[in-house]
Amino acid sequence: MEKDSTPSPRNAVFTTVVWDGGSHLADLKAHLDRMEAHAQRLRIAWPKHMMSEINREWEKGIGTREGDTVRTPSGLIRLELTRAGDISLEARPFILRNEGIEAVTVPAPRWSPKINGTKHGDWSPYVDAMQHADTKGADLALMVHDYALVDGDRATPLVIDEDGTAWLAAPAEGGVMGITAELLAPLLEQAGVPVHRGRLNERLVARALEVVALGSGIGASRIESIDGEPVGSNHEFSEKCQTLLTQHYETKNAWTHVGA
Is residue 161 within 8 Å of residue 155, measured between CB atoms? Predict the structure, then answer.
């Protein structure tokens, strides 16, 4: 079946998963759970045997790799389900990961309350934001709504307050629930860093010790400036996030074999 040509959030649902370059995807269950929840909000029928469908498409498009037991992040797989029921897989490289980056702010796109926060079929505003950042010589666009950070073009902002508390935007703010941020939150708390959800307003960001961008592709990248203004001077928390992510990906249980 052909994809709907008119942009609509309900045309598709998707997720982007860390890939080891072989036949393993990281945190696949978390991605599929989120994707299914988003599909329900978008009124997209969820396949009864999703893993079987993924394995079938994997053999057709990606292919099984022999001897691929490393299980270390090497790239990304974009997984999409259309309203028509078609499933597609697309391999993508890492562009930047675990680096110091610069960001610019853009107005956050808004849809209806059910659509906000889903990874859907009208993603062009996020792509446009990423391209806008690139034209400004920046690495990332941060989405702002009502004077608060709500999302990034391909990452979740994590703000470290001056008291060492980590803040993520609350779901009601309209951003996407990032898988990397969600898996890191309990690990940070186990390491003694309280994690709260709320409004990432200008005052919180201005006094931040550090702001970190978290995502499947971007890893844990420290944001060094926003709109040309330096952000904090601390490296401790981004380095802690990178260490925790590395330890997570070294765990065999983090990976799911796909394909034959």
Answer: no
- The rounded radius of gyration (Å) of the Cα atoms in the chain is 18
Please tell me the distance from the alpha carbon of residue 5 to that of residue 101, in angstroms, as a whole number: 35
Residue 142 φ then ψ, to 5°: -100, 130
Distance CA 260, CA 53 (A): 12
Q: In this structure, are 73 and 140 located in the same domain?
A: no
Distance of CA 76 to the CA centre of its chain: 11
Closest by alpha carbon to 179, among 219, 235, 223? 219
CA distances from 183 to 29, 64, 87, 101, 115 (A): 12, 27, 26, 22, 23
Q: Report angle CA 86, 87, 93 to the nearest 5 degrees.
A: 140
Residue ending a domain, among 64, 94, 124, is: 94
pLDDT score recorded for residue 68: 57
Q: Which domain holds residue 192?
A: 100-247
Q: Are 106 and 64 in the same domain?
A: no
Q: Is 115 helix (H, G, I), strand (E, B) or coil?
A: coil
Tell me if 256 is assigned to some domain: no
Per-block mean pLDDT, blocks of 10 residues, the chain (260 long) = 69 97 96 98 97 94 66 95 97 96 98 96 96 98 98 97 96 95 97 97 96 98 97 92 97 92
- Note the Cα 66 to chain centre separation in Å: 28
CA 190 vs CA 3, 22, 66, 139, 150: distances in Å:
44, 31, 37, 30, 25
Distance, CA of 35 to CA of 53 (rounded, Å):
14
Asked if residue 254 belongs to a domain, the reply is no
pTM above 0.85, yes or no: yes
pLDDT of 63: 72
Query: What pLDDT score does 87 carry?
Result: 97
Looking at the 3D structure of the chain, how many domains does it have? 2
